């Protein structure tokens, strides 16, 4: 399985080249195109309960598409928002992905939701994170460009919760306030997530929450009938 990522970082397009018999799983709606000889199967992965967990709790689509190469061919995928795509191959590893950043992965990887406790709830990342586990290729998307931060053992790095794409299962994290109560309420930053290495953290250069906060006040209100 080979891949290429074009038009980075603003309008990234992923093209995966499959040999005969290979397959890749993606989020519903991510498909841009595929060549002759590629079959598509749409199903609720992990059964109804597993799909409900990912959909309701993990923020992902209920159904997923699996593209199977009946003969060698290409599949092109893209996220719904303008932004970047990054490839990461897992080697018997675990990665946690924020809601909306999962694009596609090798069918050999297990995809599930993982309870993150109250710290993820108060960090605005939801009670559940998506969990990728095993060995295989994964593809993550972002709103804006993706920035990779490598953390050494014990090294700390603080990130606004709206800018998190994914992080290694080897990292520890905690959600904290920015400074005192005044800074939390009025700095525009609110709560942040502090990661402690070793491991890698992937960040996005734009925040959907910040964009919506800027956009919504500018939208015209409906006039009374």
Automatic annotation (TrEMBL):
It comes from the Archaea. InterPro entries: AIM24, AIM24_sf, Trp_RNA-bd_attenuator-like_dom. NCBIfam families: TIGR00266 family protein (TIGR00266). This is TIGR00266 family protein. It comes from Haloferax marinum.
């Amino acid at each position: 399985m080979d891949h290429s990522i074009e038009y980075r970082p603003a309008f990234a397009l992923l093209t995966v080249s499959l040999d005969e018999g290979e397959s890749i799983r993606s989020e519903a709606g991510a498909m841009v195109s595929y060549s002759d000889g590629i079959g598509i199967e749409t199903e609720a992965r992990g059964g109804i309960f597993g799909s409900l967990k990912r959909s309701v709790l993990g923020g992902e689509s209920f159904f997923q598409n699996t593209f199977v190469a009946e003969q060698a061919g290409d599949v092109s995928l893209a996220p719904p928002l303008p932004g970047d795509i990054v490839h990461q191959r897992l080697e018997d590893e675990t990665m946690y992905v924020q809601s909306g950043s999962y694009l596609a992965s090798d069918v050999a990887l297990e995809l599930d939701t993982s309870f993150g406790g109250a710290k993820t709830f108060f960090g605005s990342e939801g009670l559940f994170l998506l969990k990728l586990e095993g060995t295989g290729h994964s593809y993550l998307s972002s709103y804006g460009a993706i920035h990779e931060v490598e953390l050494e053992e014990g090294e700390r790095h603080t990130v606004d919760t709206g800018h998190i794409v994914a992080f290694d299962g080897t990292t520890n994290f905690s959600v904290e306030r920015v400074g005192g109560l005044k800074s939390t309420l009025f700095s525009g930053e609110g709560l942040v997530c502090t990661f402690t290495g070793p491991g890698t953290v992937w960040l996005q250069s734009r925040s959907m929450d910040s964009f919506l906060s800027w956009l919504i006040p500018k939208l015209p209100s409906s006039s009374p009938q």
